[in-house]
Specification:
Elements lengths: L3 E7 L4 E6 L3 E6 L5 E3 L7 E7 L4 E6 L3 E9 L2 E9 L6 E5 L4 E5 L19
Antiparallel strand pairs: 1-2, 2-3, 3-4, 5-6, 6-7, 7-8, 9-10
Length: 123
Amino acid sequence: MRRPFSLAIDRKHQRLFAGCHNKVMAIVNSENGKVVGTPAIGDGVDANAFDATTDLAFSSNGDGTLTVVHEDSADKFTVAQNVATQRGARTMALDTNTHDIYLVTAEFDEQPRRKARRVRGAR
C-alpha cells in the first residue's frame, strides 16, 4: 500500500477501503489491520465510497475512471467494472437511498502558450 488517500468503511464486516496512489484499493480488516485485498483501480484516486446494500465499493479516479469493486465475502473482492467518466471527475458522492454515484468536474480549455519575456538584466 502506497500513499493511502481516500477511505470508506463496511461497518458490517469491519472492512476499510483505502484508495492508494499506487493504483490499488487496499482493503483492510479494521479489527486486526490485516490487508485482505488489493484490487487495481485507476490513476489519481480522490474518493472512495461503500454501498452496504449492494456490497459495492467505489473509487473515483482522475484518469477518467470509476472503479467498482464487489465484496463477494468479507475477505474476497472482485473488480466488477471500470466505468469511463470525464477526465478529472474525482470528487464523488454516493446516494445510499437511490444507489446513484455523483461525480463532478469541469471542462478544461487548452491554455495558450505564453511567449517568454526577456527580463531586463537577464542573459
